[in-house]
Structures are given as C-alpha cells and as structure tokens.
Write a structure and sequence with these properties.
Layout (H helix, E strand, L loop, with lengths): L4 H6 L4 E5 L6 E5 L30
Antiparallel strand pairs: 1-2
Length: 60
C-alpha cells in the first residue's frame, strides 16, 4: 500500500468489479470507485481503495 498521495499517483490504477448497489448490474471501476451506466448509481469517492492524486498547479 502506498505511503503517500504522491506515491499512489505514480502507480497504475487497478480495475475492480462490483455488483451495483441499486440495480445489481456487474460494473467495473478504477481503484474501488464505480458508476453504473444502467441506473446512474455512483459510490462515494471516499470509498476508493487509495487516495486520489492531488491536482497540480497550473502555470500562469
């Protein structure tokens, strides 16, 4: 498991599968984050398997 958000951002995302909590359709997601195209259900972003990468600052 990565020890920092920077380390997590350099790893490749893992494709994961789950049954939709609303309609039961088998759906795929990245690192435990899902969205069902059948019924529109999405899980909370905090339920992912690792932290989201931080946004980089834009050059001005």
């Amino acid at each position: 498991m990565p020890s920092s958000p920077e380390e997590a951002a350099t790893e490749h995302p893992e494709i994961t599968f789950i049954g939709c909590a609303r309609c039961g359709t088998l759906i795929a997601g990245l690192d435990g984050r899902y969205a069902c195209s059948g019924c529109g259900w999405v899980n909370e972003w905090t339920e992912g398997h690792r932290p989201l990468p931080e946004a980089r600052r834009r050059r001005t």
